[in-house]
Design brief:
CATH topology: TIM Barrel
Structural class: alpha/beta
Strand content: 15-25%
CATH superfamily: Aldolase class I
Oligomer: single chain
Shape: globular
Number of domains: 1
Helix content: 25-40%
Radius of gyration: 18 Å
Distance between the termini: 31 Å
Number of helices: 10
Amino acid sequence: MSDRLAVEIAGLKLPNPTMLAAGILGLSPESLLQAAENGAGAVVTKSVGLKSRVGYGNPAVVQVDRGLLNAIGLANPGANYFAEEIRGLEKRGLRIPLVASVFGFSSEEFAEAAKILTKAGADAVELNVSCPHVEKTGSEIGQDPDLVREVVEAVKTKIGKPVVVKLTPNVADIVEIAEAAVKAGADAMAAINTVRAMAIDLETTQPILANKIGGLSGSVVKPVAVRCVYEIYDAVKVPIIGCGGVSDWRDAVEFMLAGASAVQIGTAIASRGLGVFKSVTKGIDLYIKKKGFRSMTDIVGLSHKR
């Protein structure tokens, strides 16, 4: 693939601007390697906390029009266990950046989980301050600029690797949250996590998800995500990773024109398979060539220029 697609985000060098999103295939070393082998430019693990969590019961995922609604409940094996899972991935052939998604119920838990996973080999961490369906973590932190600042500062004091903050769209002003994260030392933003939502079964008259409320992902949320990236780009000077509804190269280019330097792909894998990484990358490359640009960076934020 052409060098014009290579991108650097907070010191991480990606051969192309596509990334495996957190929560999709990222809970085993085999699935991370599989995403890399199928063309992802970087991989993000499933969100991992300091302690293991069972998560919610079924139904935990439901398909809706143009998207998926999930309430997994941040199920994970815990940072120490997962650290052993990812240790040595480079020796097993991983040649792209490995980003560990972490969450916590306090700034100390975020920081300790980040420390454990970066020591095990993660090249960066993505702070999940945006899960919409678990109390006392996720978006309850991500909706408060002071709490976001506290978490970022705690993590930055514990690790020397890049810190990405994954933002929630479930706020009145996403720019305020992004600015607080950057002032605290965040190296990049990821926008957005899922949109708080629910679905009700007409026959049973009850909410479908066991947790009732979940997070909406897929193409249905893309306009929201693009708007968030566009607003953040004008406000901060760190790289932005677009996430939410990327299923083909057109979606990816739209995010880049809004200001994203890379995109994460998640829900589309369920319908299009792992081949989506190569098809998106190829489409971006052809678009850049057709338009006469020298590299992918030439189109980042182009919709802001007149």
